Amino acid sequence: MNQEDMKKSLEYTNMFRKEPHYIYLLIFLVSCHVLFMTYLLPKGWADTPTSLEIIKVVGSIVPVVRNIKINMPSYTNYWGLFYSIFWIMAPLFMILGFLSSFFYSTDRYEKVVLKMSLTRFSIILVFCVLFVCLEFEFPLLSFGPFMNQMSKFLPKLLVSWFASACILYATAQMIRILFLKLSLSNNQTLEK
Fold first, then answer.
1. Distance in angstroms (rounded) separating the CA atoms of residues 9 and 156
2. The pTM is what?
3. CA-to-CA distance for 88 and 145, rounded, in angstroms?
4. Where along the chain do its domains lie?
5. What is the pLDDT along the chain (192 residues), one digit of tens a residue?
């Protein structure tokens, strides 16, 4: 193995060793989802029995998929499939958020895990969980000038879906930090 091959193999092992790598993967996944659904998926495919079954199954678990069908006059099976595939990917977004918290920089770990009070952290966690619950129930439609998950304008569509994925990502990060804070407080209690 020559030196260049060795450097390349080391580069690959450095993947996912820093928190930003996880957010980059999140950006990539959301972008791929939006671009695929917008430009590559034939709109007629959303009316096939397979797609309707996906929408039905996801809608039985995720209320927002049912709610857009019931409450949106512009609803088509295409949008049902768009939402369904996003929510099928949602556990992956949460896993990325959870795993990213293992690779905080020293400064970030100190600020978020060690120095932030449990009260302040709990308030942030409650807001994150509240946002996930709202997102789980209601679509982000006409939520300010930059948010509309059914927009025909690609940048607005990307921002809207990325915001939704980030809410899931951040909540999972907060849950992991809660575990860290609780284990640190238990360790400090045991030491006394």
1. 38
2. 0.85
3. 27
4. 19-191
5. 555 664 455 455 677 788 889 999 999 999 999 999 999 999 899 999 999 999 999 999 999 999 888 888 888 999 999 999 999 999 999 999 999 998 888 898 888 888 888 889 889 999 999 999 988 888 776 666 777 788 888 998 999 999 999 999 999 999 999 988 888 877 776 666
